[in-house]
Specification:
The complex is a heterodimer. Helix content of chain A is 37%, strand content 28%. Chain A is an alpha+beta fold. Chain A folds into two domains: 1-40; 45-192, Immunoglobulin-like (Sandwich). In chain A, the strands form two sheets. A five-stranded antiparallel β-sheet of chain A has the order 1-2-8-4-5, sandwiched between helices. A four-stranded mixed β-sheet of chain A has the order 7-6-3-9. Chain B is an alpha+beta fold. In chain B, 22% of the residues lie in helices and 28% in strands. Chain B has three helices and ten strands. Chain B has helices at residues 2-27, 53-62, 175-181; strands spanning 34-37, 40-43, 72-77, 90-96, 103-109, 124-126, 138-143, 151-153, 161-167, 185-191. Classes of the chains: A alpha+beta, B alpha+beta. At the A-B interface, helix 1, helix 2, strand 4, strand 5 and strand 8 of A face helix 1, helix 2, strand 3, strand 5 and strand 9 of B.
Amino acid sequence: MKADGKRLGDRLASAALWTTAVATIAGITHIASILAMPRLAPNDAFARMGRLAPLHQTTPLVAAAPFDDPALAQAVCRYDLSRAPTRLRAALSPDALVTLSFNARYGEIFYSMTDRSATRGRLDVLLLTRAQLDRVEQEDSEDELPQELRIVSPTLEGFVLVRSLAERVGERDDARRRVASVACGPDGATARK
Amino acid sequence: MLLVFKSVFAAALGAALGLGATYLAVDRGLAFGTTQIGPWKGQTRTGGRDVDPYTLAARARNGSTPLGPGEGLAFLADRDDDGRRLESRCDYAVIGDTPAARFWTLSILNPDGSAPALPLDQPWFTSSELVRGAQGDFSIAVAARARPGNWLPAPKDAPFVLQLRLYDTPASAATGSLAAAGMPSIRRGRCE
């Protein structure tokens, strides 16, 4: 009887040990796979943009991503900062909604804005790395504030989404024209200097 | 020998459970930073630098490109005010007002986020197209058959969700300001 009790205790202890082991492995696998997902997912937004758009060229997006707003026209500018900063420029009309979101390589939106934050109806964004920003700031003149908005990208590659609202059905072409009018490319001035 | 077998089994079982949990979390869109205001669920931290790993994982898998916090806010509803799932056999009225925003849109999507197949109709509404009441409030009919006034065409025999997007809004991700500002309610009308 006593021996039976001891054996039952042993078996329970062993079962508890194995359960703990399984739970620990499950937990580690779960956390590791969640964290690895942005780096492993074959069909994330960055990969999709890579198939749809060439580098440094504002490209209209025709097919919608899940949960996109059908009332918007969208375009993408893929960038690669390894050679030079990327500059985005556009003349904006005062009433129409234009928004920009800056997406890093692994899904992080590191900056976003609307046309309201543009100065004097002009959009002028310089997208650069931390090192490029340091270089640009060294060349800044002391008594003049920079006219452009400078944004540091956490990764060398990424993409900028430009969206504009078609307020009414008949205004879809206007919205498409607005997003297509945003020029994007390697910054010539900085590259020359 | 038994110990080796048990260890391998435990490792395999643990890995399977862990990956299963990941699949469920990512596929069901279990994400933190979700705010619920009435029937509306808002992913108020999808963008920005404080985005959580579950949201990033789900986004990497479905390839979506959500709004950044500086662009606006997006809310989804798959249930009405009383918590009943939205059904295409029922009529709904989206009533009330939205938090302050320069523009907003209300659109119909399939539950997986894709656009519904409605070849002739436009399954979205913008704030500019809206006809408002005397007090500035509005009512949008969500129904499969055409309605007079503000009408948002719903699919005939398919489940759907509603998406409300606020563009250029001072309402921030801080939930308090949004709840106070008031989101529209979704009332169920007649069902067939």
